[in-house]
Amino acid sequence: MTSIEHITLEVADPTAAKIFYTDVLGLGAWVRVRASEEPTTGFRGFTLSLICSQPANVNALIDAALEAGATTLKPAEKSLFGYGGVVQAPDGTIVTVASSSKKDTGPATRQIDDIVIQLGVADVAAAKRFYVASGLTVGRSFGSKYVEFEAAARTVKLSLLKRKALAKAAGVAVDGAGSHRVVIGGGAAPKTDPDGFVWEAAS
Asked: Where is coiled-coil annotated (predicted)?
């Protein structure tokens, strides 16, 4: 089964970004950074989603991110599906932090249970076919609206949904152009998906 071992964010200030993702969010094993001045405007077409076991952990991570220079896109609050909020990292990456639970069961920590890269795509069915052909296994699928792929332990999960729906969930306008400024690390060979998301071979 193809797995995402890491993602690489292309940023203007790699030193600052490495501190943010490694020291603040604790994602050093899964998120890499490298310098890039590729032009981009507006929504970059993806979000990084951090899944926690309880609301207190969501708050702890969001508070740490805000203290480190992130900005609020959606304040953390309860919803039909649990509890969560959305921030934008100093480098521009949109990070959602959420829990399916609405009640705390222990002291707050910054523990993250799952990491998901969510891609906003033009055609969910077409993107699903591409990724199945590339060796990923579908875990959950809701027609042409949402697909979630299975992932091995300690790897990054992948989900697909319509670009407009992802932008709405993130609290940003759907418009955007230029580089996605993210490279997905996984599989045996480089590839580019139908929406221009680039994969590099796992190291």
From this structure: none
Which tokens sit at 38? 């590729």
**So what's the pLDDT on residue 157?**
97
Separation of alpha carbons 38 and 52, rounded Å: 32
Find the mean pLDDT for residues 44-59.
Answer: 98
- What 3-state class would DSSP assign to 168? helix
- Which structure tokens are listed for 86? 């959305």
How remote is the C-alpha of 177 from its chain's centroid? 18
> What does pTM read for this prediction?
0.96
DSSP structure string for 102-124:
SS--S------SEEEEEEEES-H
- Enumerate residues 6+ apart whose C-beta is below 8 A from 78: 55, 102
Domains of the chain: 4-200 (3.10.180.10)
CA distance 8 to 183: 5
